[in-house]
Amino acid sequence: MFEKELERTRKNLRTVLATSQPYLPLRSILENENVGAAYRVYFRSEVDWWVHEERAIRMSNPRFDTTDPAFRTTLSQLEELYVGFARFDHEELHATIDAAVKTRLNYLCRPRTTLKWFVFRGEPTKPVHEVVLRLRYFNDYRYLIDGFLAWARSRGTSASAYEILSVVEFERIIEKVDNDAILDLSQEQFVDLLEPLYRFFADADPDLPPATVPTEAVIIFLDDKGAIPISQALERALYREELRYLTRSRLIDIINDVIAQIESQGLTPAEAVHEATRGGLNGGETGGVDGGETGGVDGGEADGEEDGVDGGEADGVDGGEADGEEDGVDGKSHEELQSDVLQKRMMRLGEHIDEQQRDRIIKKVFAKNEAAYQTTVQSTLSALTWKEAAVILDRRFIEYGVEPNGAVAMEFAQALHRTFLA
Per-domain residue ranges for the chain? Predict the structure, then answer.
């Protein structure tokens, strides 16, 4: 997902940091104002990690007692020299650029999940001092990083840096820091949290409508935060209205609508805000952008690779032209062309819904009625445009008594929608 934006950002960084020399010093990167602050922080933290690895090698050598206080000043000076004279060869420079860009966008879209992945790398525990070193790679959403550092400082003794922290406890700490930070925010302040995401896409995609961000990116962000009622409202707007890009004001309007709907159920305003922004935490099965799991960015280290927004092309076959062209194109009748369109869309649907997902949709959405599933797919994908298809889909849901806002129903609708984007 968002491969186009990732590649543009990588290319820009590679251009800015291009050198004819065999090595590029860290100090040159840090002094280059054309390198964004987030990436300068990433490069500096990568060097700090190198120093950490060198320290671990020294300490693991049983021949020398480098823990003796007599070594402290000398080794500290040595490590400062390591940082001051650190450098990247071309291969390592490009690898670090790739990792920095991908990690940053993952973090911007789903900070909680990315922090867990980046810090623990699938391991169940980490020493606190290593957790702190890994967190220093991140420059956006500083309140999350500062919140964890405050927790670490609250442990009191310097020995706490070497205590072991489990990934479960780490998730709990980050979740609490995040929830506490957004507890008293207004709707406008909550949307302001997305400012780094808006800046990233403004820099990465010059074709993007002004002051917007892809709706799917915001859905991923909200799912990660547990703001499920708002993310589901955005998913409905995405597939029913084709709201593919989102302004801040439109997002605020949608949040206000969700809160108003929750208030109408008898909750106080404060309870409604809490339910809208945190109501989905531990709330059972929820549909992400790619169905059950929340989609990642670029698929690599992050879970859930999925198709990205295709840059605003009109609905149609093979990009651009409207479905259902005039009779006689390539010697085919209107009915034959429509059949071709349906067949292509059915093939695309198979790319987004595998056999296991199909069975789950039939079971949970259509109460094991396979004929209802087939009828809904055929009639929806036969529509000329997605707007018409969305109306047909809503009618089918009503006909078969389907709850359209259910997680699996939303997953099904999203897959149908994607067949119109190809």
Answer: 1-109, 110-182, 210-278, 329-419
**CA distances from residue 1 to 52, 94, 105, 181, 304 in whole angstroms, order as listed:** 33, 21, 10, 29, 9
User: What is the number of other CB atoms lying within 10 angstroms of the CB of residue 178?
Assistant: 22
> Which residue reads 């078969």 in tokens?
400
- Tell me: pLDDT of 309 over 90: no
Q: What percent of the chain has pLDDT over 70?
A: 83
The token duo for 80 is: 């400062």
Tell me the residue length of the chain. Answer: 422
Q: Mean pLDDT across the chain, nearest whole number? A: 82
Are the CB atoms for 171 and 138 separated by under 8 Å? no
DSSP for residue 89: E
Encode 90-126: b = buried (16+ Cβ within 10 Å), e = exposed.
eeebeebbbbbbbbbbbbbbbbbbbbbbbbbeeeeeb
Report the alpha-carbon distance of residue 312 to residue 325 in Å, rounded: 20
Q: In whole angstroms, what separates CA 197 from the centre of its chain?
A: 10
Under 8 Å CB-to-CB from 31, ≥6 apart: which residues?
A: none
pLDDT tens digits along 20-74: 999 999 999 999 999 999 999 999 999 999 999 998 898 888 898 888 888 888 9
Q: What residues have CB less than 8 Å from 182, skipping those under 6 apart? A: 190, 193, 225, 277, 278
Residue 107: its H or E element: helix 90-109
Task: Report the run of H or E that residue 284 belongs to, with start and end.
Answer: none
